[in-house]
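anyone else get weird line breaks when pasting these?? whatever heres mine. first is seq + tokens for prot A
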Amino acid sequence: MVRKDPEITKRNKEIAALTEQIRELESIVLKYTGCSSLHSLNGKYGGKYAEYIDIKNEVIDTPEQFISLYCQGFHKKLESLKESAQSGNYYFDAWLHFYEYEEVREWLKLFLKRTFLRNYKFLSKVRPTVEESVMWIGQENASYGLLVTPRFGDAQWENDQSEIRHFKPRYWTILHILKTGLVIPFEKEKIVFHDIEQYLTFFKNTLVRNSGSIHEKEIAKRYCDFVRNADEPENVPLLIPELRYGGISKKHEYRLDFTIVNPFNLSKVGFELSPWSTHGELTGIKGKTQKAINEEVKANFEKEMMKIKSYFRKLGITVIVYTDSDLEKYDVIFEEISKYLSPSQSHKQLEFQAIADLLAFKPNLTESDNL
């Protein structure tokens, strides 16, 4: 039996309550606005949200934010009218009714709040930029592409940019990769996964195993168990292995051991497992002076720091580094990593004067307008 999402249930109840309040105001609002029907009324006000708000790019978390953006867009439209802001103009008349009648303002606020709740998933979903929507991962001769809406273009994979905003799964989660699979660079071929277990097997035994790192293998095992035991395994963020700083280019500088992308706000955090034997230990030091040895140690350290800085500067990824003393305790490391595998959606707290600003709009009115 499919479990009901409590958040959806809560929204549906609120939508039903708003509908009742809206119906109580409809007759008086029709009278004040002079609209001949509800269809005409909705078109004059509520249906304008796509004109007043840049819904293609805005990420809207709350009804208050939605109302604020609507009012800001309405205000901007009125200001653009200039001398045309007078009775008889479609937009000005809509504003005039909004200005004069409290019932119209209350109805519109309720209507917009219901519109937001009805379109919550679409309006609140953070969407990756064109650059962020392509990731290349893996070793030099065994790399794969992780895209959002992959299609094979001019001899290479690319995203269908017009469809990115309509992608239903949460970005960069288990369900994401089940939906898209992994693409093979420069080949019209994909690796598809029919279920979670099939992906986890590929993740652990192919993607991570190719790195040759015992540390990465241990973390991968714990990740697989974490996904299997999750209440909603399909919504667990991907633990992305070997993210390539240089993209598909063979001559790239760095790979990051693991990366997690928060599916709600698309913030990124990387994890680098850096034992001294791999990144700091020196060989062939016999016969070298202490000065020369110190210079090599310094160069190795600066190389590692440049790697971390490069990921942060270019890709906006904060990198957490685990060294030898950390790597003795895999469970402790994964406990820290798991915090990023259980993200929660935070809502923006808004303080806005949009409605006040809209009411304060001052057109060039004549005395006959009686305002």
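and prot B, same format (seq, then tokens)
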Amino acid sequence: MKNFVFLFCAIALSVFVSCDDDGPYQDYQVARPILQDAITFKAEAVSVTEPVPVVSSGKIYAYGNYIFLNDVNKGFHVIDNQNPSSPESIAFIKLEGNNDISIKDDKIYADSYGDLVIFNISDINNISIAGRIENAIYNNGVWATDVEYPQADFYELGDIDYDRDIVIGWEVVTERRSVEEYESRYNCDGCVVDSLESFNDSPQPSTGQGGSLARFKIIGNYLYVVDYSDINIFDITDVEDVQVLDDVQVAWDIETIYNQGDILFIGGSQGMYIYGIENPEKPKFISEFRHGTACDPVVVDGGYAYVTLKGGNFCGNTESGLYVIDISNLENPELKVIYPMDGPNGLGIKDDTLFVCDGDSGLKVYDKTNAPNLTLINTFENIVAYDVIPLPSSLLMIGDRTLYQYEYVDNDIKLLSTLQL
């Protein structure tokens, strides 16, 4: 019997497994985070520089003669659009962990790793930071956006203080671990690996205009921000003393915010949620329209809401389409028509025209005069369409690191300019 055990261990050794009293062992890759103080990290993660190329174009925002383009998780680019036929990139505002902005009275309100950061752009050539409110939007810990997760068998986070620590890298070492520990690592309750995976997914106005994919919305003296489940509310009457008000819980996986007067329409992966803001500090639930799991921006005009549902990938299994919903009775929204789409993203409305970004299938233009029945009047193909902002005299569209501008001509639109980003 002893000879048999010896032979078993000898064979196991040949495949890098050793025997011990408590079972076989093997060499595994173990990853541990490298931390930096959050205050120092966040200070270094903000700066204003000369224009740089776009890495991953995100949402767009229009304010006066300027366009602000998000570079996902890195900051936003400033584009001078005084001449829409020849827009020019003039600066890059580095703001790591940023995805959204909103602007009022020359103040930019932006997110950065769950903080609310305020910039002063009264002098566009001398942009400065006006304030920062930590953990104002969410507080789930901060991870440097340019740090990739290493390939490893074990992830050990240790005692991270999410209010003080930033993960700026990983140290991977080879360690001897039991095979039983390796095989049981996904069977524990609240495993480190599980938590890692879940952590990863014009006229001069006083207030600017974002697209339908925006999570930020300024209405009057209030800024509304949707995180993953709540509406975060800020009183911005005094920019030097922004008041953080109580959050309002909506639903899991909410994604976008749009308003028509004092009614908020929240787009989420499970449905559209309607809230009244007669009291702007306390949005009140009115009703919801539920649908299958999908990415879900929404715009509203009159008695109809227009919702694009995008299925596939991380968005869900719902078939992609444009939903037209009757909201004449806010307490009982009713689906009227579904128009098939290939991979819709953002959408926008100007008068009786509806613009739908259908991903790789381009920009689709509809006449909605007879809503809920829509008439397709134009399709701009051979472009990737992500989001649009209809302005009084032109249309902005972003897609595949290119900014497109169209001008309204009679009852049609024509390409005015493109800016490769």
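btw re prot B: The helical segments are 2-14, 38-44, 179-183, 192-199. Confidence is low (pLDDT under 50) at residues 1-17, 187-204.
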